[in-house]
UniProtKB/TrEMBL annotation, chain A:
CDD domains: TM_PBP2 (cd06261). One of its GO terms (cellular component) is plasma membrane. This is ABC transporter permease subunit. Belongs to the binding-protein-dependent transport system permease family. The chain crosses the membrane at residues 17-36, 79-102, 122-150, 196-221, 246-269. GO terms for biological process: peptide transport; protein transport; transmembrane transport. The keyword Protein transport applies. PANTHER family: D,D-DIPEPTIDE TRANSPORT SYSTEM PERMEASE PROTEIN DDPC-RELATED, OLIGOPEPTIDE TRANSPORT SYSTEM PERMEASE PROTEIN APPC.
TrEMBL record, chain B:
InterPro entries: Peptide/Ni-bd, SBP_5, SBP_5_dom, TAT_signal, TAT_signal_bac_arc. PANTHER family: PERIPLASMIC BINDING COMPONENT OF ABC TRANSPORTER (PTHR30290), PERIPLASMIC OLIGOPEPTIDE-BINDING PROTEIN-RELATED (PTHR30290:SF10). Belongs to the bacterial solute-binding protein 5 family. The keyword Coiled coil does not apply. It is found in: Periplasm. It comes from the Bacteria. Residues 77-442 form the Solute-binding protein family domain. Keywords: Signal, Transport. It comes from Aminobacter carboxidus. Pfam families: SBP_bac_5. This is Twin-arginine translocation signal domain-containing protein.
Length: 294, 526
């Protein structure tokens, strides 16, 4: 209970829009199959391009599938894909980063130069290249994005690991004769993970966007799995006759990405002193002026 | 010089006048262009190298300058062009053509037997052009008089006259438009349009007033490169272009055609000469070896409903390999109707049973459909409908959407269970498709094969290609019957050819092949 209260009080300090957007996104993602009013893949060609109605709250798409159900299930596709990519990317990135931070010296130099190479290439280009080689498909897409995403987390975890390793308690552990495995697994890894998870929150939106981008290009999620990027590209030919079909998935994607970005940013900024607002600044000036007079 | 407040204010006062002047000059220029009568046509990509003996540039642009001996008219009628008369003799082994007199190339060179043979020598009989019967079987020529030529062939050449109507390599370049090594320099032909300029954003042409035939009523043609179909639609509605459409030139999708129509833009829709075909690859998937499975798939989906939804009823559901306007298209087969129960029964008899996805010997009835949006717009949606409808009869269809390059490698390598194809279309039909897409021994590069059966199908195709003109109908019908009975392919739709033009364009008629630019008979209104 105490944990929950602490968590809630922490979230209340974050921007409300971000909390709502990310919260809804995760909720839909987790409970999607129980929330969809219709079978998201059930086609009815005679009911294509229907506008919103009681049966279909957000209308139907170009082959007569319920748009609301597809939007909801798309959230799940994104949440699962995003989680898989981040877990894969983080496990590789954190391992490499902490090993580099722990060992230092030429190991660090070597590993970090590899990371530099990874960082030098735009992640989407790396992902496209991997898909070009291995072909399209769900797991290839996850793999491609993970390969594109690990260098960032490796760089951050190395920085954190170097910081942790320089702290006095690690030195004491060494003097006391703690084994390298103990230092690494009990002290270094947990301390690093926390910082990297914050980074991951900020990055989740970018991953969701990358999944949508690849699907938009036809290289990511394959039909019939609903996915926002795919819904967008399928609806493009009908942009004029039924713009709703383009706007809705676009809006859903935008909200999710903005939510994650705001959240990540505010978590990071929560640790930095906030600049004073104009109103407070004005008050302070008035106070200071009063001092002068006195 | 320091800018004082006064000079600045003066400048401000002058600026609007300058702007006004400039914009009035621009609009005057635009008015002039329109008044003089420029036909502005959208093209999806730059015209490229227009050498008629190479396979690089855009066909329809080459058609503006280069003319054939005979033209492919509506429904495959052969019409005279640079040849006025022709005769096929010696059982089809000799072609005698009488050349049109008083014709000159755009550079003043006269069109005669010598110019014709100079062109033919650049391509005929060379291995690279073996896909053309006339080139493969060419044996020699004789210039009878300056306007009569005889071409000799080793064997009777099927589709001979059609081959001489192709855009490339059969059309004629001025012998003077090459350098001293014989390398192509400029696109100079006998046609009514002279190229003025060409760049990656546009090509412009002016009328050739010495043209032998009917002179176009307007003086310029401007081809604007607009790669994105949405920007073409916007340009058409804004009056910035006069004409767009065709399968290759500046394609218009069925949904876009409907939007244009409702915006008051005249749209012409015709059944074209290409067919959208669903191909099976039994070599990769054992299940497809069984004709009953193919038959079940063929009646497992609803062509009419798909046509209504995806093609806005503009595409006619297909029963035969070719639409009726193709020469030797054969007997019309009925369009397969969706029959879920019959399809299920067929699969049951074939040993595929179970609820949900059917199984046989512990193997699921699962097929992979390869689609490429770049090759065929809307093919992924088509795939999704097939996936859903075939799912109802117990077939699991997975869709693999690939980019253009992957399709070019996967389709010839036959890495698919099912795939969507276009037939080649006029003027290459029927033999372009029959030989190119069905004969196992013929290498057709990236196009791939619709169906392969060296033991049964190849002899039929070979028999048709070596049949005499009198037997061709029967020989091609034998192929169509075999394909139909074996359900070797599933014809889906006859692709509609959609053109749209600005209201000021009058007298527009769609071209008879996808390789011509339809400028003829057009007059430009105000």
């Amino acid at each position: 209970m105490k944990f929950l209260r602490e968590f809630l009080s922490y979230t209340s300090s974050l921007p409300r829009l971000a909390i709502w957007a990310v919260g809804t996104f995760l909720f839909l993602g987790i409970f999607a199959p129980w929330l969809t009013p219709h079978d998201p893949n059930a086609q009815n060609l005679l009911q294509a391009h229907l506008g919103p109605s009681f049966a279909h709250w957000l209308g139907t798409d170009h082959v007569g599938r319920d748009t609301l159900s597809r939007l909801i299930l798309s959230a799940r596709t994104s949440v699962v894909g995003m989680t898989l990519v981040l877990v894969l990317a983080l496990s590789v990135g954190v391992t490499i980063g902490t090993v580099a931070g722990y060992r230092r010296g030429w190991v660090e130099e070597g590993l970090m130069r590899i990371v530099d190479v990874g960082l030098a290439m735009p992640s989407l280009i790396v992902a496209l290249a991997v898909i070009g080689i291995f072909g399209t498909g769900y797991w290839n897409m996850i793999l491609a994005l993970a390969l594109a995403w690990w260098p960032g987390s490796a760089r951050i975890s190395r920085a954190v690991a170097v910081n942790v390793m320089n702290r006095p308690h690690i030195e004491s552990l060494r003097v006391l004769g703690a084994s390298p495995a103990r230092i690494y697994f009990h002290h270094l890894l947990p301390a690093t993970l926390g910082a990297v998870l914050v980074y991951a929150t900020a990055d989740a939106g970018a991953v969701a966007l990358a999944i949508a981008t690849l699907s938009f290009l036809g290289l990511g999620i394959q039909p019939p799995t609903p996915e926002w990027g795919q819904m967008l590209v399928d609806a493009l030919p009908y942009l004029e006759s039924s713009p709703r079909q383009v706007i809705l998935p676009g809006l859903a994607l935008t909200l999710a990405v903005i939510g994650f970005n705001l959240l990540g940013e505010s978590i990071a900024l929560n640790r930095v002193p906030t600049p004073l607002s104009r109103k407070i600044l004005r008050q302070r000036r008035i106070t200071a002026a009063a001092w002068k007079k006195a | 010089m320091t800018a004082s407040r006064r000079t600045f204010l003066k400048g401000l006062a002058v600026a609007p006048a300058l702007f006004g002047g400039l914009s009035s000059t621009i609009s005057a220029y635009a008015q002039k262009a329109k008044a003089h009568g420029d036909l502005i046509v959208a093209i999806a990509k730059p015209a490229g190298n227009l050498d008629p003996h190479k396979y690089i540039g855009l066909w329809a642009v080459q058609d503006l300058m280069f003319e054939p001996l005979m033209r492919y008219g509506k429904n495959g009628q052969i019409e005279p062009a640079l040849a006025t008369e022709w005769a096929v003799e010696d059982n089809g082994k000799l072609l005698r053509v009488k050349l049109r007199q008083n014709v000159t190339f755009q550079d003043g060179t006269s069109w005669d037997a010598e110019a014709m043979m100079w062109n033919l020598d650049r391509w005929i009989g060379k291995p690279a052009n073996n896909w053309m019967n006339s080139s493969r079987l060419y044996s020699g020529h004789r210039i009878v008089d300056p306007h009569t030529v005889e071409l000799q062939f080793k064997e009777p050449v099927l589709g001979l006259l059609y081959e001489f109507s192709y855009v490339r390599p059969s059309r004629f370049l001025s012998p003077k438009s090459v350098d001293k090594d014989g390398n192509y320099q400029a696109p100079v032909g006998t046609g009514p349009w002279i190229q003025e300029s060409a760049s990656n954003s546009e090509s412009t042409f002016k009328r050739f007033d010495g043209y032998w035939g009917d002179l176009p009523t307007f003086e310029h043609v401007e081809l604007k490169v607009l790669p994105d179909s949405r920007s073409r639609m916007a340009a058409l509605r804004a009056g910035e272009i006069d004409l767009a459409g065709g399968d290759y030139l500046a394609p218009i999708k069925a949904t876009e055609a409907k939007a244009l129509e409702s915006a008051g833009i005249p749209v012409t829709v015709e059944t074209g000469t290409t067919t959208i075909v669903l191909a099976y690859n039994p070599d990769r998937n054992e299940a497809l070896k069984d004709v009953r499975v193919r038959k079940a798939i063929n009646i497992g989906f609803d062509r009419a409903a798909i046509g209504q939804v995806l093609y806005q009823s503009l595409a006619e559901p297909a029963g035969s390999l070719f639409p009726a306007n193709v020469p030797h298209a054969g007997k019309r087969f009925d369009v397969a109707k969706r029959d879920v129960e019959a399809a299920k029964a067929l699969l049951e008899v074939a040993g595929w049973s179970g609820s949900g996805i059917r199984e046989k010997d512990g193997k699921k009835l699962s097929l992979e459909l390869v689609v490429s949006e770049e090759q065929m717009a809307g093919s992924r949606s088509l795939g999704e409908i097939l996936q859903s409808q075939l799912g109802e009869i117990g077939i699991e269809l997975t869709i693999r959407s690939v980019d253009h390059a992957s399709r070019h490698s996967d389709i010839p390598a036959r890495k698919y269970d099912m795939a969507l194809f276009y037939t080649l279309g006029a003027p290459y039909e029927p033999f372009g498709t029959l030989v190119g897409l069905f004969l196992s021994t013929f290498n057709n590069g990236v196009d791939g094969k619709l169906f392969l059966d060296p033991a049964n199908l190849d002899p039929l195709v070979l028999a048709a290609t070596s049949a005499s003109e009198a037997d061709v109908a029967g020989a091609t019908q034998a192929i169509y019957d075999w394909l139909y009975n074996e359900v070797a392919i599933s014809p889906l739709f006859y692709a509609p050819i959609i053109w749209a033009h600005a209201p000021r364009v009058q007298g527009f008629t769609p071209p008879s092949t996808e390789y011509d630019l339809p400028y003829k008979n057009i007059t430009l209104g105000a």
